[in-house]
Amino acid sequence: ILWLMGEYCEHVPKIAPDVLRKMAKSFTNEEDIVKLQTVNLAAKLYLTNSKQ
């Protein structure tokens, strides 16, 4: 799900930030690959949706 959000975050600009907020709460307990995808989503959101 994180990968999909990262790939298509510009198509779901209202949902992707909520997914990122939810993942940030459990970031330290996640596997490395999940952490990587979370950071990837955060970077893509920052670049494509920097107005928020």
From TrEMBL:
<feature type="domain" description="Clathrin/coatomer adaptor adaptin-like N-terminal">
    <location>
        <begin position="1"/>
        <end position="51"/>
    </location>
</feature>
<dbReference type="InterPro" id="IPR002553">
    <property type="entry name" value="Clathrin/coatomer_adapt-like_N"/>
</dbReference>
<dbReference type="InterPro" id="IPR026739">
    <property type="entry name" value="AP_beta"/>
</dbReference>
<keyword id="KW-0472">Membrane</keyword>
<keyword id="KW-0813">Transport</keyword>
<dbReference type="InterPro" id="IPR011989">
    <property type="entry name" value="ARM-like"/>
</dbReference>
<dbReference type="Pfam" id="PF01602">
    <property type="entry name" value="Adaptin_N"/>
</dbReference>
<comment type="similarity">
    <text>Belongs to the adaptor complexes large subunit family.</text>
</comment>
<dbReference type="InterPro" id="IPR016024">
    <property type="entry name" value="ARM-type_fold"/>
</dbReference>
<dbReference type="GO" id="GO:0015031">
    <property type="term" value="P:protein transport"/>
</dbReference>
<keyword id="KW-0653">Protein transport</keyword>
<dbReference type="GO" id="GO:0012505">
    <property type="term" value="C:endomembrane system"/>
</dbReference>
<protein>
    <recommendedName>
        <fullName>Clathrin/coatomer adaptor adaptin-like N-terminal domain-containing protein</fullName>
    </recommendedName>
</protein>
